[in-house]
Structures are given as C-alpha cells and as structure tokens.
From TrEMBL:
Top EC class for this record: hydrolase
PANTHER family in the cross-refs: GANGLIOSIDE INDUCED DIFFERENTIATION ASSOCIATED PROTEIN 2-RELATED (PTHR11106), MACRO DOMAIN-CONTAINING PROTEIN (PTHR11106:SF27)
Enzyme Commission number: 3.1.1.106
Organism annotation: Streptomyces salinarius
Keyword Nucleus set for record: no
Protein name: O-acetyl-ADP-ribose deacetylase
Highest taxon, organism lineage: Bacteria
SUPFAM superfamilies noted in UniProt: Macro domain-like
Length: 169
C-alpha cells in the first residue's frame, strides 16, 4: 500500500513523478485544475493530447479511464489525465470515480512512477460532495495494489483538505 500524504495548495507547484489531471473526455483542456495544468505545463501537453485524439482516442477518453502524456514544463515526468464522473444524486456513479484512481495508478505502474499527486477528482465543476469523494479516493488508493510508493492528495482549499484528513486519519 502506498504512503498517503496530504498537501493543501496548487497541484501545478508540486514535484512528483506523475501529476494527475481531472480532465474531461475531450482531453483538450477546460477550467479548474485542468486549466491550471495546461497553463503552467505549457503547450507540449495539449499537443500530445491532440495526437492521442487523432490516434486511438478518436472518440475521447471515456469516464473512469486514464492516459499519460508529457508533463511539459511542470516539475514532473508525466501528467496522467483521467475523466471523473459528473455527480448525480439519482444514479450511483461511485464505481466510475473509484475507477479514476485505480486506472491512474495502473498507468502510473506501467510508467514506473513512484510518486503520484492527485487532485480531488470530480469535486469542482462535476459537483461531487467532498466527504464522499474523499472516502472513495482514500479507500481506492489503499486497496489498489499498486507499486506506487507515495500517493499525495493535493487539496486546493481548507475544506477539501479537512475532508481528506478525516479519511486518512
Ligand atoms: N490544484 C489543486 N486542486 C485544484 C486546482 C489546483 N490548481 N484547481 C482546482 N482544484 P475541477 P472536476 C480543485 O473543477 O470537478 C474542468 O473544466 C478544485 O477545488 O478542476 O473533476 C475539466 O476540463 C476541486 O476540489 O475538476 C472538466 O470539464 C478539484 O480540484 C471538469 O472541470 C476538482 O475540480 C472536471 O471537473
């Protein structure tokens, strides 16, 4: 099981082997953490995303899946893009959110990444309640069976940090 650490701040300032992006299926950028990663990481990330879209991801990256690109100018070797589910009170999409963490760690293992920084996937624009998102994130990382040594959750604000701290213990 990886060591789980928590940091409050901007994930684009982190040093890690891989930084996970809460992307959308287009892989062509957006707001929130996605916008911040592309801004600070520079155009090399978008260029590689476009190549993926022109290749085997012609229809985009499905929700719950993950794919790696260069990290461009970020202090990391790779960005792992994953697509969280939009929260729905009517439908339980927890498996898809868990899949984002599991698939990102699977890709990290393929790359040989030892340290991976995650944002709180789906808790912004996609409206997932923080406490539940934190529970799913921490449980999934603990049971993923990954070779990653350190999983660092990088939480943007105090509320998110508190929610994750309550789950990590
Ligand atoms: N560092 C760390 N966390 C951040 C940062 C940052 N620089 N910026 C925001 N967060 P969101 P989602 C937090 O909306 O809900 C995009 O437009 C934020 O406070 O970035 O998965 C994509 O293109 C929140 O807790 O991602 C998609 O269309 C968490 O990151 C859509 O938003 C996730 O918020 C994905 O929505």
């Amino acid at each position: 099981m990886p060591t789980i650490t928590l940091v409050q701040g901007d994930i684009t300032r982190e040093h890690a082997d891989a930084i996970v992006n809460a992307a959308n299926s287009s892989l062509l950028g957006g707001g929130g953490v996605d916008g911040a990663i592309h801004r600070r990481g520079g155009p090399a990330i978008l260029a590689e995303c476009r190549r993926l879209r022109a290749g085997h991801l012609g229809k985009g990256l499905p929700t719950g899946r993950a794919v790696a690109t260069t990290a461009g100018d970020l202090d990391a070797r790779w960005v792992i893009h994953t697509v969280g589910p939009v929260y729905s009170a009517a439908e339980d999409r927890s498996d898809l959110l868990a899949s984002c963490y599991r698939e990102s760690l699977r890709v990290a293992d393929e790359l040989g990444a030892r340290t991976v920084a995650f944002p709180a996937i789906s808790t912004g624009v996609y409206r997932w309640p923080l406490d539940d998102a934190a529970r799913i994130a921490v449980e999934t990382v603990k049971t993923a069976g990954t070779s990653v040594a350190e999983v660092r959750f990088v939480l943007f604000d105090d509320r998110a940090h508190q929610a994750f701290a309550a789950r990590v213990g």
